[in-house]
Design brief:
Blueprint: H1 2-17, E1 23-26, E2 46-48, E3 55-56, E4 72-74, E5 82-84
Parallel strand pairs: 1-4, 2-5
Antiparallel strand pairs: 1-3
């Protein structure tokens, strides 16, 4: 009985600590966005780097810098230029 209990607890612990991909919407720009997001892409021209807070992480949540290769980048709008900057 004890090995089963340990296996179940280990499974629960791993599932709670596993990273999950999240959707992030591109709001663009070259400066930090101080307002909360709306879970939609503004689709504006901007710089994609690891420091600028221009990614919308959902309705009512603060904008964040891109920090995870496992997240999904969502782009909208029309014809904007996104400049990629190496870390």
């Amino acid at each position: 009985m004890k090995p089963k209990r340990v296996a179940v607890l280990a499974t629960i612990a791993l599932s709670l600590s596993a990273a999950h991909a999240a959707d992030k919407w591109w709001d663009g720009g070259a400066a930090d966005i101080g307002s909360a997001g709306n879970a939609a892409s503004a689709g504006t021209t901007g710089t994609w780097n690891l420091t600028t807070l221009n990614w919308d992480q959902g309705n009512g949540l603060n904008h964040v810098a891109w920090n995870s290769a496992s997240d999904s980048a969502i782009f909208g709008g029309g014809g904007a230029t996104v400049t990629l900057v190496s870390p």
